[in-house]
Amino acid sequence: MIEKQNKNKNGLFALIVIYSFLFILNYLTPMGFGDDYLYSFIWQGNAMNHPLSLDAVRISSFSDLFLSQWRHYFTWGGRTVAHSLAQFFLWQGKVFFNLINSFVGALLVVEVYWCIHKGKVSFSFNPKILYWIFFALWAFTPGFTPVFLWLTGACNYLWTCVILIGLMIPYIKKYYYPENKNCDCTVFAGFMFLCGVIAGWTNENSVCWIILTLAIHLLVLHRKSGNIENWMYTGFIGLIVGYIALMFAPGNLFRLHLIHGLKWDILQTFTINGSAFLKVIFCQFLLWYFLLRFFYIVAHVSNMDADLRKESSLITILSIISLGMTGIMLMAPDFPERSGFFGTVWLIIAIGIASRIQKEHKMKLIQDDAKRFLSVIGVIYFIMTSVITIQYFYEMFEWHRELIHRVVQSKNNNKKTVLIVKPFRKANKTEVLMSGFHIIENGLSEDADNWENVAFARYYGIKEIQEEKD
Length: 470
Fold this sequence. Notes:
By secondary structure, this protein is an all-alpha fold. It contains 20 helices and 2 strands. The chain has helices at residues 2-28, 35-38, 62-75, 80-92, 94-116, 127-140, 144-148, 151-156, 158-176, 186-200, 204-224, 230-247, 250-260, 266-283, 285-299, 306-327, 341-360, 368-412, 429-434, 451-460; strands at residues 418-421, 464-467. It has a two-stranded parallel ribbon with strand order 1-2. Helix 10 (186-200) runs parallel beside helix 12 (230-247), helix 11 (204-224) packs antiparallel against helix 16 (306-327) and helix 15 (285-299) runs parallel beside helix 17. It is globular, with a radius of gyration of 24 Å. The N and C termini lie far apart (66 Å). The relative contact order is 0.11. This is Glycosyltransferase RgtA/B/C/D-like domain-containing protein.
C-alpha cells in the first residue's frame, strides 16, 4: 500500500516536472511573427500573405471570433477547431496561453500513457514511463518548437492531437475488453458524437486514417460478437461529419488555387515533398528500428497466445497509421515537417505497448547493457539539448522584450516614421544541431510592407517597422 502511494506521488511529481519544463519554454517563447499577429485580427478574407488593411480590427469578443472563423472557413481553410483555439488565446493573451498550453503538453503525455496501458484511465502512473514518453516527444518530434510552443502551431498540432487521442482512448479500451460495457447511455452516446465532430474537424492527414481504422474495427467487432455499444457508432459518425466539414471547406480550394494555380502537378508535388518525408522518417529512425526489432522477435515466438497476438495486431495497426499519416503528406500541397508529429505520437504509443509486452511476456526487446547505455546517452542528450535550447530562447526573450520596449516608446512619442530595429542573431549550424533542432528563427523582414511586418505594426498601433538591412 505504501509502495503504491509512493508510486502515485512520484508519478504526480513527474507530471509537475514535465509541466514546469514546458512552462519555462512557453514563457520564453514570444508570439510568432506572422501567423500569431495576423490571427489576432478578425480575418479579412484575403490571402495569408496579403498585408492587413488600416481598418483591421483586433478580436475582442466571441462574436468577433465567430465572424473571423466564418470568413476564414469560406476564404482560406477548414481548420475551424484549431484556429478558433488560436484566435481565442491570442485574444486572451500569451500569459494565459502559457499556463494552459503547458498543461495540454503534459496531458498528451498522460494520454499516451493511457493508450500504452490498454486505454485504462487511471491516475496511478509509473514515473519512469512518463519521463520516457516526454523524452520521446522531445527527441523524435519533427519540429518540437512549432508544435509545442508556437501559439498558432500548438493549436494546430498539439491541441488537435490531444483531442483526437482523447476520442480514441475508449475505443482502445474496447479493443482490449470487447465484452465489457463502458457506458451505453444516451447521454454518453451524444457526448461521443459531439467529441467525434470536434476531433474530425482537426487535421487532414491524421483523421482519415483514424476513420478507416475505426471502420475496420467496428466491422470486425460486429462479425465476431456484435457487441458494439451505441457510443462507438455515434463517435464514429461524428468523426466522419467533422472530417467532411474540414475537408470540404470552400476556403481549401481557394488556398490551393492561390498557391498552385489552376494546374496542380501531383507528381511534382510528390517529388518536392519527398525530402520533407525523409526528414520526418530520419527523426523517427530509432523508433522504427525498435519497432522492427519487436516484429522480428515476435515472429520467432513459438506458441503465441491470444493476448500476444492481439497486442501485436494493435502495434501493427498503429505502425500502419503512423506511416500513413506521414506518407499521405507526400501528395499534400505543402508539407511542413511538423506535419509528421501525428504519426510520431502513434509510433511512440506502438513502441510503448511493445515495451510493456516484453515485460509481461518476458521477451528481450533490448539487452540490459544496451538499455543502460541508451539511458545514459538519452540523459546526456536531453541535458545538452535542453540547456542550449533554453539559453537561446532566453536570449530571444530578452531581445523581444527590448523590441517591445522600443515599439512602445515609438508609439508614445507618436513617431510617424518607419521604426528600424536590430534583428535577432541567427543560430549557427552547430548550435541548431546541438539543440536537437529545437531552435527556430523568429524575426521580422527588412521590408516594411511585408505582411508579417504589417501585422506586427497594426497589432501595436505603430506606422511601420522593419529590420536593419545588412
